[in-house]
Amino acid sequence: MNVQVLKAPLSRRNLKSQPRILLPVLALILLMPAVNLTARAQSGLAQLQGTIRDASGRVVPGARILLRDTRTGLSRRGISNRVGQYSFPSLAPDPYALQVTAQGFRAARRQFTLEVNQHLLLDVPLAVHSMTVQTVVVGRSAVLRTASASLGEVIEPKMVRDLPLNGGHLLDLALLAPGVHGGSGAQTGTANPLYWRPEQNSALVAGGARDNANVYLLDGATDTDPTFGTLTLSPAVDAVREFKVQTGSYSAEFGGGGGAQINMITRSGSNRWHGDIYEYLRNSALDARTWNDVGGRAPGKTPHLAQNQFGGSLGGPIQSNRTFFFVNLEGFRLGQDIVNFDTVPTLAERRGNFSQSGHQIYDPSSTYKNPNYNPNQPVSSANPQYLRNQFSGNIIPRQDINPVSAAVLQYVPLPNMAQSGPDSNNYYDVRGQTDNSNQATIRIDHNFRGGNLLMGRYSIEHETDFVPQNLPGFGINDNNQAQNFTVSYTRILSSSSVDRIWVAMSRLSMHRYSQDNFGANLVQQLGIQGVGYGGYGAYGLPYFNLQGYTGFGDSFAATPVQDWDTVAQIGDIWNYQLGRHSLKIGGDYRRFFWPMWGFFENRGYYQFTNGFTTRTLTNDGTGSAFASYLLGLPVVKQVQQGVPSMDLLQWYGDAFIQDDWRMNSRTTLDLGLRYEYMSPLWDTEHEGSNLEFINGKSFAFIGGQSGMPAGLMYANKLNFAPRFGFTRQVGWGMVLRGSFGIFFTPVDMNTWCDQRHNPPEVFQVGQQSDNFTPSLNGYNFAPAVLGKTPFNFSAFTPHSPAQQYHQWSLSLQKRLGRNTVLEIGYTGAR
């Protein structure tokens, strides 16, 4: 493939062509009442709404309402409007006391607890002519969802506090929500080298969506890493009050994915001092023997395990009823033996002697035509076209053994177990894995007079891990740090209008490197030419993949690699009660900064099969991949020449309007419209390349040149996501709920990483031989030359459509006693 390299620099005009896509957003905003357009309106706070009526059922306008947070003393006041309705949005998930007074009526009081992101309908009837205050306690668990059609589950404080968790991983509790189960892929933290975070599994499948379709929020602010749609910072269980897992049918207030919206709310201080110190322990002294120990194949000893999770928290008042603080510190230490049964070559095989190996090996240089070959029959082991002579005594002559192959074997251990046959497990591999982390959270809350509230929180988590891979001497280290910062301000504009604005930052720094990256220059010592890019930090051994044997060498993918994923956010939600309509209007602006560098196959990758040492050049059961290795005959060899680096930038813009219309005392409609825009990633420092297909032919282009997009693809500008839901109280303690919504799931930003491996800055040189006729000899590579060197080229379509996720649901809730609600429902998606 020939790529024309254009040297014209990226123009500011190409990089800053964002305002064109703002026209649909502005058109949407012009249809709304006055609103602050700023950020992803996903506060996670609760809302209280209801109607004040008299004994005959007629509405009572002008009733005075006092709402008080009994934990912090924060008070807010309201007045029922002309249709008797009131609304208190943006409420913390806390216990509350509500008092309603009106001239000529007896005062009424309600006590209840709000959950995270709960929309509670609480109608209050007033009786006439009495000075007695009537107090009613509203149960927490048995409240029917009469105001929202969204699906999900609130993980309450008692569940967070009391349920056992191995390692204290908070997201494990999300599996308690209906329709949520564990997933796989990069989100597991150990499946993709570009997201290497052992003990930080965020692979969840919700409602049939993909693992990357989930959105994670911490105190309503973003806690999602866009590279793979993963959780950035996992707060300590002791730092979390409760969280909600919405699995679908959520309102237009929420977006960014068609899976689950997981909103975690941290603990805050109160008027009472509270604190704790804790330590959880697991160790091998209390564990049973593993199945690997059965039958005497391994030493009769339980593999080492020592896991400690320890920490403490403290919260209380700085000034009673005004200012509060909360702080949590936690450490995690895990050391455990990882046991594997590997296959390594014997001492005789290393010397080329396969007489006792069970492998019959044949000399590839002795290939000759089979005189009995029948051209009218297909080629097979019974009708081979070519034949080879067996090595004399089934031994490779010493002079035929490649010196690099022989030198590399010093890094491969000898068998320590008897093998029962060729290519059988003959090495008992037990090595220690360590996973350590420390984290801290500090939060300050301040109540202003009149009900205004200011909150600030900062959380930081640092992880260091070592995971053994391949054979002893080879493993993976990581050094990661996650941070999350949020400041929010809730302002009472009037008895019917509340505004909440916040700024936030979420950052994840990941550094992954091989065990040998900072050691000796092994490639230079071996004398391999054309590999070894990256300098001191990228030292190590090439990776050798042998059919039937355990691979050896340092990991070839993302060693080393470092990136800094940073999302800056500013957000606003404006709530307004207009008659029977409870309006929410907001928007979103986020900025994603992604500098990164990494190495892939820079030390070389070599793959070997038995095909070159077979008798008939077919899969006839003869030959040995290790024999092909000793001869220096790989079937595949690859190297990345150059150092890929990038400095990517991206921005997101969302806007929404949501109307919760209480048509009457039994029926509520949820009507919403959301607009989402995601710009392509563009590199501010380096040239990126991609392919465009025109009339069936491919054309390579440089981003930002010749009229092509700087972000290598065109943005989708019409991502409108309507939402509809209804709730209907049908009597007998039952509520019918239904919904339909369109959701847009962003692609993994890692897609753009592949483009950094393309010319003109990086060459992915790949060479492949026929599986039975060797054409590659040795381990060297010639320097890549543009226009003359075959290389791999990564590409994606510049006109990729947005990923849409349509979902609908219908469910029926039935109250069963005071503390139980039964729900039966159906959810569909495509």
Structural features, described:
- The chain has 830 residues and is mainly beta.
- The protein is 5% helix and 44% strand.
- The strands form nine sheets. It has a 16-stranded antiparallel β-sheet that branches. The chain has a five-stranded mixed β-sheet with strand order 3-2-5-6-9, with no helix packed on it.
- A hairpin with a 6-residue loop joins strand 5 and strand 6 (108-113).
- The two termini are 38 Å apart.
Separate helix tally: 7
The major beta sheet can be summarized as: 16 strands, antiparallel
Rough outline: elongated
What is the count of β-strands?
A: 42
Class per helix and strand makeup: mainly beta
What is the strand content? 35-45%
Helix content: under 10%
Mean pLDDT: 86
Stretches with pLDDT under 50, minimum 5 residues: 1-42, 294-298
Radius of gyration: 32 Å
Separation of the first and last Cα atoms: 38 Å
Give the SSE layout.
Layout: H1 12-15, H2 22-30, E1 46-54, E2 64-69, E3 75-79, E4 85-91, E5 95-101, E6 108-113, E7 119-121, E8 124-126, E9 134-137, E10 151-155, H3 157-162, E11 180-182, E12 204-206, E13 215-218, E14 221-222, E15 224-225, E16 230-231, E17 240-248, E18 261-266, E19 274-283, E20 305-319, E21 323-342, H4 347-350, E22 368-369, E23 386-387, H5 403-408, E24 427-447, E25 453-468, E26 475-494, E27 497-514, H6 522-526, E28 543-546, E29 557-578, E30 581-600, E31 605-608, H7 625-630, E32 636-641, E33 645-662, E34 667-678, E35 682-683, E36 689-694, E37 697-702, E38 719-731, E39 734-745, E40 763-768, E41 803-815, E42 821-829
Parallel strand pairs: 1-7, 1-8, 6-9, 13-18, 28-31
Antiparallel strand pairs: 1-4, 2-3, 2-5, 5-6, 10-17, 11-12, 13-14, 15-16, 17-18, 19-20, 20-21, 21-24, 22-23, 24-25, 25-26, 26-27, 27-29, 29-30, 30-33, 31-32, 32-40, 33-34, 33-35, 34-38, 36-37, 38-39, 39-41, 41-42
